[in-house]
Each structure stands twice: as C-alpha cells, then as structure tokens.
C-alpha cells in the first residue's frame, strides 16, 4: 500500500513537470479563447507530440494508481 502511494506521488510530480513544459497557449488570454486562432488545427510534431503523449500516459497511470489505492486500502 505504501509503495503505491510513493509511486503515485512520483507520477504526480512528473505529470506536473510535463504539463508545465508544454508551451502551447502561453498567454493568459488564450485560456479564455483569445489569442492567435490561426493554428487551432495544427499538427503536433517533435517534442510537442512527445510531451502530449507523455501527459496522457502519466495521467492514465495516475488515475489507475489512484483507483488501485482505493481498492487495496
């Protein structure tokens, strides 16, 4: 049980780091729909694509560990 909590904490820190490394929509106005709308349908390439996939993988792992932590308490 303790090991699951430690792994979940490490994944949470990694997930925060990956999210902060993404620079898409860096301006505060883009959060509410403002900003440059010319690249709304742009294709993710290179590091941006890797960070996007890492975010999905880490979020899935985090949720899975959270559920496992609840079940095996």
UniProtKB/TrEMBL annotation:
Keywords in alphabetical order: Cell membrane, Membrane, Protein transport, Translocation, Transmembrane, Transmembrane helix, Transport
Domain of life: Bacteria
A GO biological process held by the record: intracellular protein transmembrane transport
Chain segments annotated as transmembrane: 52-72
Species, as recorded: Candidatus Falkowbacteria bacterium CG10_big_fil_rev_8_21_14_0_10_43_11
Name assigned to this protein: Protein-export membrane protein SecG
Localization of this protein: Cell membrane
Matching Pfam families: SecG
Purpose: Involved in protein export. Participates in an early event of protein translocation.
Gene Ontology molecular function, alphabetical: protein-transporting ATPase activity
GO cellular component: plasma membrane
Similarity comment text for this entry: Belongs to the SecG family.
Gene: secG
Bilayer topology annotation: Multi-pass membrane protein
InterPro entries registered for this protein in UniProt: SecG
